[in-house]
Structure formats: C-alpha cells, structure tokens
Write a structure and sequence with these properties.
The complex is a heterodimer of chains A (233) and B (250). By secondary structure, chain A is mainly alpha-helical. Chain A is built from 10 helices and 3 strands. Chain B contains 10 helices and 3 strands. Classes of the chains: A mainly alpha (233), B mainly alpha (250). The complex binds fe (ii) ion (FE2) (2 copies).
C-alpha cells in the first residue's frame, strides 16, 4: 500500500513542476507522463471491514468511484499538460493547474486516507503510544484534547474539505490544519492523519448528522500508520 | 468572487435587527447567551416549501427534500440566528474582536439561508405549467439572444455545474446595471450571489442535494434538474416581479 502511494506521489510532484513554465519545451518528453501515470491503489482491507462505523457501501463508492474519478482527472490533466508543453503552449499548460491541483490533491488525499484507516478488530481505534503519544501530549495537552480539537476543526469546515494532523517540519511540532476541497497539505507540513469531511464520506450512513461520523471514525483510525509517518518525517 | 460589503448590505436590508441595537442596554446583555427572541428581535425562520416533500419525484426524492429542507436549511437558519445573537451581544459589549470573529459564521449561514430560500422557489413539480419554459417568454428570448438557443444555454449551465470543485452553487443571474445581460456564475460553499446581480435561478451542487438518490452520478442529477426548474419564478425574477425583494422574506 505504501509503495502504491510512493509510486504515484512523484507523479504529482513532477506534474506540479511541469505546470510551471520555467522549463523549455524539449525537457517535457511525453515519456515522463507515461511513467508517472497515477493508478487507484488497492484498499488494504475489504469494503465492509470498517463497519459499523463506515458502511461497506460508502467505502465502495468512495474508493471505486470517487477516488477513481480523481485518478482519471489527474491523468487527463497530466496528459493535457504534457501535450501542451511538448508543443510549447505554456499558457495552455499553466491553465490546467487548477484541475491538476484538484484531481492530484484528491488522489493524494484519498491515498493517505485509506492508509489512515483500519478495521476496529485489527489495528483500528484506541490511542497512539510511544513517541507519537508523547508528541501529542506535549503539543495538545492530551490525546482527548487533540481529538476534541480535531473534531471541532472538522465541524467548522464550511463546505467540502479535510482536516489533518500535521507535523511542522521547521518547528518540529504537531498541529491541526484544514484544507478546502481537495487542496493537498504542502509546505512545511507533513500530513500524518487526514479525515475526509466531504459529504460523500458519510452521507449514505449519517446524512446530515456529520458530528456522529466525526465521533465514529476514531474507532477505525490506524495509529500504526500515523506513528510510522511521524517517525519518518 | 464575493464582495462581503454587498452581503452586509443585503443582510442589513433584510435583517430583523434593524436599528433596535441602540435600544439594548449593556445590562441586558451581560448575562450572555440570549437568543434573538429574548432580545426582543425577530429571528429568521425556515420558509415553508411551496410544495410537498415528494412533489419533485422522481427527479429529487422525498427523502432528499425532507433532509435538505427540514435539516440542512433549518441548520443554516438556527446557526444564523445564533451567530446574529452573539453579534448583537458583542456590539452591545463593545467587543470588536468577537464581532469580527462572527462575520464568517454570519456570512456562511446567512448565505445558506438565502441560497436555499431562492432554490426552493425556483423549483416546481415536474409536468406542471411552471416547468414549461414557455411561461418565461421574456427570459427565454433573452437566453436565446445570448446563447443562441435554450438548449445550448442548458448545456453551458450544466457544464458550469459539473465543473464546480467541491461544494457550491450554479446560478443564472441578471447582471447589475443598465445592460441587464444574463450570465452564468458559480459560487463556492454558501457564498451568495452579490454585487447587485439578480439571481434568476440556482442549482445546489452540494453533495447533500443529490447523494442519497444519485450517489456519485451528479451528471444525472444535473440532467434531471431541468425537469423541475420553475420557469415562472425565473421569469418573475427576470422582469423584476420577484416577491423576494418586495416582501423581504429572506
Ligand atoms: Fe472523499
Ligand atoms: Fe443545500
């Protein structure tokens, strides 16, 4: 699973570079696009494995339809950019940037999200331990305070978006950020744990009662993944 | 992009607060957490739907309509009233920081209330006279002038709806000023149409507007919404007969 993400993340980085207009046309060979083509990662568990907290139907649509649409949109944006740059049409290439950001962000965010989750009878739920627990305690006061702040951040999103536990690489501290729509977490922040607050992530099961979804999802958070990202960052 | 100044003007013009602020003494406020009614002010309320929850079937299911109106729209109204009450308290207490902090909540929930109020009225049960563009003679002729035909306008409008990234709305508006041209605009989240543009009709592209019935197939929702557009309301708004402005219902 991690390797799937690593395989596709450079594609996005390359695409973001490609969307700039610094490079001469010849540098943008179409082969780099083919090599960087994004694919839908497999889920590391069954669609029904997160029940009763997230229904199998939600997981199936979310992964096989929504995430797939971002993958397709990303590849088509990359293709448009590669083609435009190969013809020296840099303005046209740059105009695709919003689509690249949206679909590329959607692909990266969901790839990170699936890894953040695990069945409650396996790695899912509970509380972090070790260095991650220490960092959460020191930067938020306690795990419970962190959890409450994350839920407040999620509830405060006006529209579609995500909330993330991040590590600030320059300060070395943990923090919470929200992102609108599919804007990815970038800059000094390393995403450790993301929660999808788009309505498609919960509506079939929770309808307008999104606070219940934000409570339930803690039962299926995979703290091992979060800890691994924390230690690597 | 939203001009927050225009929104304030809009809310001010339609506000139940009016100039009663000055009559509130700070002593009344010091208890905190009063609601608008306790302050002697009329809160906003959820407007009744002009048709039954199941009236738009099979294009929009009764379950969607009931949740959308009874829960989502109600939440915007409730949260708008709560934010306005806090704002009144903050004004009375001279707490400028709190007033600023509340602006986003007022804008979001106020926008949600305005947008949904406009939306319900620009829909009508399929097969009724209202859903026949023939009842909107002046509007349709303006549309044909601008887009060539009603069909190509629908295509352009649908494409704009499907291109929205995240939650938002698509609107046909009559531009401010003497030119009075028609234009398709999209707004994000609950940003309302502002700047003097007159909304003719809007389509809610939040996932809650279609998900229970259409799932990820939003193109089908967009295709079917044309069966329930209320062209009579659209015509009234286009020629300036729109009740909303006269009765300040929002
Ligand atoms: Fe999602
Ligand atoms: Fe809505």
């Amino acid at each position: 699973m991690a390797s799937t993400l690593l395989r596709t993340a450079p594609a996005l980085r390359g695409a973001l570079r490609a969307s700039g207009i610094r490079k001469p046309a010849v540098a943008m060979a179409s082969t780099s696009f083919v090599r960087g083509k994004a694919t839908l990662p497999d889920l590391p568990y069954d669609y029904g494995a997160l029940e009763p907290y997230i229904s199998g139907k939600i997981m199936e649509l979310h992964h096989a339809k929504h995430h797939q649409t971002y993958v397709n949109g990303l590849n088509s944006a990359l293709e448009t950019i590669a083609e435009a740059e190969s013809k020296g049409e840099f303005t046209k290439a740059a105009s695709v940037a919003p689509l690249l950001n949206f679909h590329g962000g959607g692909h990266v965010n969901h790839s990170l999200f699936w890894e953040n989750l695990a069945p409650a009878n396996r790695e899912g739920g509970g509380e972090p331990d070790g260095a991650l627990k220490k960092a959460i305690d020191s930067d938020f006061g306690s795990f419970e305070t962190f959890r409450k702040q994350m839920n407040t951040a999620l509830a405060g999103i006006q529209g579609s978006g995500w909330a993330w536990l991040v590590k600030d690489k320059s300060a070395g501290t943990l923090g919470l950020v929200t992102r609108a729509n599919q804007d990815p977490v970038t800059g000094p922040y390393v995403p450790l744990l993301g929660i999808d607050a788009w309505e498609h992530a919960y509506y079939l099961q929770y309808q307008n009662r999104k606070a219940e979804y934000f409570e339930a999802i803690w039962n299926v958070i995979n703290w091992k993944t979060v800890a691994a990202r924390f230690e690597k960052s | 992009m939203v001009n927050i100044g225009s929104l304030w003007q809009y809310l001010a013009a339609h506000s139940p607060l009016q100039s009663t602020l000055s009559s509130l003494s700070t002593t009344t406020m010091s208890g905190g957490a009063l609601n608008l009614t306790q302050m002697g002010l009329a809160p906003y309320s959820l407007p009744p739907l002009p048709y039954a929850y199941d009236a738009l079937e099979p294009h929009i299911s009764a379950q969607i309509m009931e949740l959308h109106h009874g829960k989502h729209h109600q939440a915007y109204v409730t949260n708008l009233n709560a934010a306005l009450a806090s704002h009144v308290s903050a004004v009375a207490a001279g707490d400028v920081a709190a007033q600023i902090a509340l602006q986003q909540a007022i804008k979001f929930n106020g926008g949600g209330h305005i947008n949904h109020s406009l939306f319900w009225k620009n829909l009508a049960p399929p097969g009724t006279e209202e859903t026949n563009p023939a009842v909107a003679k002046e509007l349709v002729s303006a549309i044909e002038k601008k887009w060539g035909s009603l069909e190509s306008f629908k295509k352009a409008f649908s494409a704009a709806l499907l291109a929205i990234q995240g939650s938002g709305w698509g609107w046909l508006v009559k531009e401010a000023g003497n030119g009075a041209g028609l234009r398709i605009v999209t707004t994000k989240d609950q940003d309302p149409v502002v700047g003097g543009d007159v909304p003719i009709f809007g389509v809610d592209m939040w996932e809650h507007a279609y998900y229970l019935q259409y799932l990820n197939g939003k193109a089908a929702y967009v295709e079917n919404i044309w069966n329930v557009i209320n062209w009579r309301t659209a015509e009234d708004r286009f020629v300036g007969r729109n009740e909303e402005n006269v009765k300040t219902e929002l």
